[in-house]
Amino acid sequence: MSDSAQDPPVIEFRNVAYRFSGGMELLAGLDLQVRRGETLVLLGRSGSGKTTSLKLINGLVTPSQGEVLVEGQATTQWNLIRLRRGIGYVIQDAGLFPHFTVERNIGLVPTIEEWPPDKIKKRVAELLQTVGLEPDLSSRYPRELSGGQRQRVGVARALAADPPILLMDEPFGALDPITRAELQREFLALQKRLRKTVVFVTHDLREALLLGTRVALMEAGKLVTALPTGEFTKSPDPLVQKYLDAFGAAPSNGNRDSA
Question: Looking at residue 173, what is its pLDDT?
Answer without folding.
Answer: 83
